[in-house]
Amino acid sequence: MRTSKVEKKRLLEDTLAAYYQPLVADQLNQAILYSLKAGGKRIRPMIFLNLVEAFGIPLSTAHYQVAATVEMIHTASLIHDDLPAMDNDDYRRGQLTNHKVYGEAVAILAGDSLFLDPFGFLSQIDLPAPILLQLIRELSQASGTFGMVAGQTLDMMGEGRSLTLGELQQIHAHKTGTLFTFPFVAAAIVLELSPEIIERFRNIGKLTGLAFQVRDDILDVTASFEEIGKTPNKDQDAHKATYPSLMGLEGARVFLEECLQQALVELEQIEQEEACDLRDLVALIESMRIKNV
User: Which residue among 31, 34, 58, 76 has its CA within the 20 to 30 Å range from the CA of 40?
Assistant: First the structure.
């Protein structure tokens, strides 16, 4: 029997909160939990959980712990991204950003903790050591110098410049794509699927991450603060290259659909070949469509 979306999210929230129950520096824990509990759809951990369950494996404490690690990294990136030295935003998910509540110094340290803690967390999970080693390697590659941090750097260096579509895709392949790819690959590793299937899921993750970024760029110029929970038109004000600015709004919408469709076609093929049930994962990816495209 499948776990409901609501129950998955509840157990994920419990897992995240439980990790930060021991106190050393109370204000640090408060700042960490402030951002962890700020809401969000938890898309990345849900991808992992839905994919594990699609292969008929009951979800365990270990699975929720793996799922929590990618959300910790993602939350760290949001805290740092909102800082004055970077995107300088006052709101995230409809509430004041971390540095607006706890100050810049504590916000930086909270982000530092959320970048570092997942690797210690992964090392403690009750899974075979070779699997944990692969997960630690994949999460590090997705997060650091060769992944998201590199993408953030390229993004900042690109402000005020005229970028090509290829350059923009390189930025977002790292800034957004690698953390979207991790849960697909992590689930395939935990399930001990073949190297070929792992690479196919890696490609699906890249397509999904690209689609998410295109969607985010579209919403930045079409949605209100109430809809996206952060300041709209930030990219335009910062003179950043975006998919709508390079392709036009309609072109970006078409491109979003193309990315999602490619991912869905690949999932359908794997579903048929592996005799798994990917309906929950498909529904999650379908939810990334923008109405009235």
Answer: 58
Parts of the chain with a pLDDT under 50: 292-293
- Give the DSSP per-residue string, 19-42: HT-S-SSHHHHHHHHHHHTS----
Kindly report, residue by residue over 123-132, the tens digit of the pLDDT: 999 999 999 9
- As given in the structure block, the two tokens for residue 166 are 């290829």
Global pTM exceeds 0.70: yes
pLDDT tens track for 238-289: 677 899 999 999 999 999 999 999 999 999 999 999 999 999 999 999 999 9
Residue at 132: amino acid letter:
L
Tokens in use for 229? Answer: 């929970």
Whole-number pLDDT of residue 204: 97
Entry field: residues in the chain? 293
Q: What is the CA 185 to chain-centroid distance, rounded?
A: 13
Burial of 58 (0-12, 13-18, 19+ CB in 10 A): exposed
Q: Reduced to 3 states, what is the DSSP secondary structure of residue 117?
A: helix
Place of tokens 């800082």: 83
Distance, CA of 32 to CA of 35 (rounded, Å): 6
With contact defined as beta carbons under 8 Å apart, do 198 and 211 qualify?
A: no
Distances 118 to 112, 124, 219, 281 between C-alpha atoms, Å: 11, 10, 30, 24
* Residue 22: per-residue pLDDT: 84
What is the per-residue pLDDT for 236? 66
Q: Cα–Cα distance between 232 and 221 in angstroms, integer?
A: 6
Q: 24: which residues sit within 8 A by CB, 6+ positions away?
A: none
Q: Is 271 helix (H, G, I), strand (E, B) or coil?
A: helix
What 8-state DSSP symbol labels residue 175?
I
- 92: helix, strand or coil: strand
265 burial (CB, 10 Å; 0-12 / 13-18 / 19+) is exposed
For 95, the enclosing helix (H) or strand (E) is strand 95-96
